Amino acid sequence: MITISFPDAKAGNDGDEITGIWLTHTQTAKVTIFGSGKYYYGKITWLKEHNRPDGKPKYDEHNPDSKLKSRPIFGLLLLSGFEYDANSKQWINGEIYDPKNGKTYSCKLTLTDKNTLEVRGYVGISLIGRTEVWKRSE
Q: Residue 110, class by beta-carbon neighbours within 10 Å (0-12 exposed, 13-18 middle, 19+ buried)?
């Protein structure tokens, strides 16, 4: 099992509460969320099944860009460009990539408590979408 770690973001920014390692709703991957205090990102840093049944690493085979189909799922940037909105206490204006179908969705993130993260991916408006619940991990 391979793990990637990132340094903690700057202390003192409420937006940094989201940084850390999160277990996805399917419990098959962990995503490390990191940021600069302005923008936040998330990479896959653990996979329950790192390889395919044939022993080869899992690749981004569903990506519509043929040049990206050979990149590994492990280490893949899943979350990008999130900004913390102190008024709504949400991370907004970001995107989430779904390697299972190769699509990118608008996304917002909401901490319901320090160990529970709601990840809402949507197309157009956030009313039309899907919410997953991720749990903080080690």
A: middle
pTM listed for this prediction = 0.86
For residue 25, with 0-12 CB atoms within 10 Å meaning exposed, 13-18 middle and 19 or more buried, which class applies?
A: middle
Query: CATH classification of 14-137, choosing from 3.40.50.150, 2.50.20.10, 2.60.120.260, 2.40.128.520?
Result: 2.40.128.520
Maximum CA extent, the chain? 49
- pLDDT interval class at 134 (50, 70, 90): very high
- How many other CB atoms sit within 10 Å of the CB of residue 77? 13
Q: Which two tokens stand for residue 56?
A: 């080869």
Asked whether the beta carbons of 44 and 57 are under 8 A apart, the reply is: no
Instruction: Break the chain into its structural domains and give their ranges.
Output: 14-137
DSSP state of 127: T
